[in-house]
Amino acid sequence: MFARPSNFRVLSAWLLIAALGVGAAWWGAERHRSTLLRQMVDRAQHCAVAFVSEDTKALTGTPADLNHPEYRAVKDRLIRLRGVSPGIRFVYLFRSTDRPGRVVFLADSEPETSADMSKPGDDYPEAPNSPGLQAILRNFEPATEGPLRDSFGEWVTAYAPVGDRPPPGAPRTILGIDADSSHWRRELWSARLSAFGLVVLVLGVPFAGWLFRMRERNFNREIRRLSTAIQQSSSAVIITSPARIIEYANDGLLAITGYQREELIGQPSRLLLPGDADEQQRGELLRRLLAGERWQGEMLMRRRNGEVFTVRIVFSPVRDGDGRVTNLVAVFDDISDRKRVEDELRVARDQAEAADRAKGEFLAMMSHELRTPLNGIIGFATLLQDTSLTTEQGDYVETVRKSGEALLTLTNELLDYSRIDAGRMQLDPQACAPRQIVEEAVELLSTRAADKHLELLVTVSPQVPTHVLADPGRLRQILVNLIGNAIKFTPAGEVEVEVGATLLPAAAGGDQRVRLDFTVRDTGIGIAAEKQDRLFQPFSQVDASTTRKHGGAGLGLAISRSLVRLMNGDIEVSSAAGAGSEFRFHIEVRVLEKTEGLSKLPPRRIAVISANTRARAHYAALLESWGLKVTTFENLTKLPAERTHDVLLIDVLARDASLWPALLQAHSGLADAPVIGLIAISVPAALRDELRTCFRALLKKPLRDPLFHAVLQSVLKN
């Protein structure tokens, strides 16, 4: 059996036949051209025989010949020769002159009334450019040329000598006949087409027939192959008429339903459906199929033994050349086993979800039950500290209190996680002030930061609304968690908290929404890039060593991310080992009261003195935003001896707090200058009282912007 020819081979064969046809056309045209030229030469020679040298000797080749009877006789003979020569336009006689390669007319076949008549003695100007004419002038042998254009048109010309060969130097008489080049080209094209058609007829038609037979054979083979594939397919295939009469059923259908083929052919398709099948639904399906639509889905069918089973079925209409639906094809598979497995999995999933919910509810209940006695332990430990205790007893009680607080924190995290895991976590939106929430979170952790001598810096953008609708408790929880982690993993340096705001397009109801952006940045130990993907996973920490050193259950960040997402936001981290960390999160809230902002202060000069570079930059940016002219110094010794500033702001580090009273008294540039001091909460009360006598105002870090602004306003006013 021949293999199916590829498109490339078929195209190559046709190109070869076309190339052979073109070659045959060229060969046929050349052959016919030679024949036509030979015929023209024969015709020119026959015409030349009609003249003898005596007939033309009397002609002088000048206008005087017009009055000679010999000219009249020669011209009449030329006219008659043209009349009996079909396809010939001109018949004429030339005579060579003493000028090399030049000729003049003796006579032609045009009537005297014709505008194309050439008179005796008329020069033929195209003679030098006529290769055939030049050839016969040289050797006095018949010649041809053309197609060639002259002043009369475009012609194919044949030349023949008249009379015997004259002696060298004697004038030569030549007869010429002209045929129209268009007739010549038509003859050649006819020869080309005949040759090309012959090749196509001899080669192309048999090849086309062979190709048709091969394609028909391959087509029949494909049909047999497809028919065999459908017949032996494990999927059931059924073909019905538009009236739903079964016309074909494959082996897969017989295997699935248990019928024999002869029991199905010619029977209505409802034989395969349950007795309670919805006829209205079947009618609607048939209407859609007859309209040319395709349908797929699940339906119930019936086996020969009456068992009802579920199938996944696809119905497709079959159209004829006129677009009419002639048959309906259905392909289906028995999915009853799969449906049974799905039902079992669904039951198992429901049971697992119920067990998981029960676990979550149990954890939530137990966590709640645990908090009550823990609060009692912490409360009574605090009360016990206020009684008369020895130093050793005080240490024991403090240990009990701190342990209770740590256990309470862990219990709260477990409670929150169990609520989130059980899908029971709900927010409590209410009017709240974002700035106040941030300040409260920072205030709560300021002692821990001061104990580690860390600068705790807060920047709240003026664009942050005064009041928004949010859950203040959960927002504070997120901030406490992130700031607490930053303090925990930062041995030295600072922790910065920044809050920004971006207004969002107003909702359909007219409510103005805002995106609050929070950033917590530290100069701590950082997190390696390959370990950051574990940060927000529950019960996961970056390194076991950090767990041993810093404690924690690894739930804080996971809970924070869940809370942020409940607020229509997200959280992310940027960090590198040894380079600190930056946690960013945003939430979307409704604006209740827009920001009025703090007023500008008089443009006075203020000196900021702090040993912490980042703190200096932070305070300078804040003061400049209020309109003050700021100069920063690393320490008091850098300050000029003479007074150059209206106000001084001094950042008193906890470890150097005891030195400042003497330093302030010793510096002459501070005479009569109001000085505002910033101290950490960890500075002892006695030292704070001593420092208060050295400063016009003493503010606790981290600063609250409204209070700081009010103090500056009062100092500058007075």
Note down, in words, how this protein is organized:
The mean pLDDT is 81. The strands form 4 sheets. Strands 11, 12, 13, 14, 15, 16 and 17 form a 7-stranded mixed sheet that branches. The chain is α+β, with helices and mostly antiparallel strands. 45% of the residues lie in helices and 22% in strands. Helix 16 (660-666) links the parallel strand 20 and strand 21. It folds into 5 domains: 7-188, Beta-Lactamase (2-Layer Sandwich), CATH 3.30.450; 233-334, 2-Layer Sandwich (Beta-Lactamase), CATH 3.30.450.20; 341-421, Helix Hairpins, CATH 1.10.287; 430-593, Heat Shock Protein 90; 605-717, 3-Layer(aba) Sandwich (Rossmann fold). The protein has 18 helices and 22 strands. Helix 1 (7-49) packs antiparallel against helix 5, helix 9 runs antiparallel to helix 10 (391-421) and helix 12 (472-488) runs antiparallel to helix 14.
In short:
Helices cover 45% and strands 22% of the residues.
Low-confidence stretches: none
Q: End-to-end distance, in Å?
A: 113 Å
- Beta-strand content bin: 15-25%
Average predicted confidence as pLDDT: 81
CATH superfamily of the largest domain: PAS domain
For the structure shown, list the relevant keywords.
718 residues, alpha+beta, Beta-Lactamase, Helix Hairpins, 7-stranded mixed β-sheet, 5-stranded antiparallel β-sheet
Write the layout of secondary structure elements.
Blueprint: H1 7-49, H2 53-57, H3 69-83, E1 88-96, E2 103-108, H4 131-139, E3 143-150, E4 153-161, E5 173-180, H5 181-232, E6 236-240, E7 246-249, H6 251-257, H7 261-264, H8 279-290, E8 295-302, E9 308-319, E10 325-334, H9 336-385, H10 391-421, E11 430-432, H11 434-451, E12 455-460, E13 467-470, H12 472-488, E14 494-503, E15 513-522, H13 544-550, H14 556-566, E16 570-575, E17 581-593, E18 605-609, H15 613-625, E19 629-633, E20 647-652, H16 660-666, E21 675-679, H17 685-692, E22 697-700, H18 705-717
Parallel strand pairs: 12-14, 18-19, 18-20, 20-21, 21-22
Antiparallel strand pairs: 1-2, 1-5, 3-4, 4-5, 6-7, 6-10, 8-9, 9-10, 11-13, 13-17, 14-15, 15-17, 16-17
Helix pairs in contact: 1-5, 9-10, 10-14, 11-12, 12-14
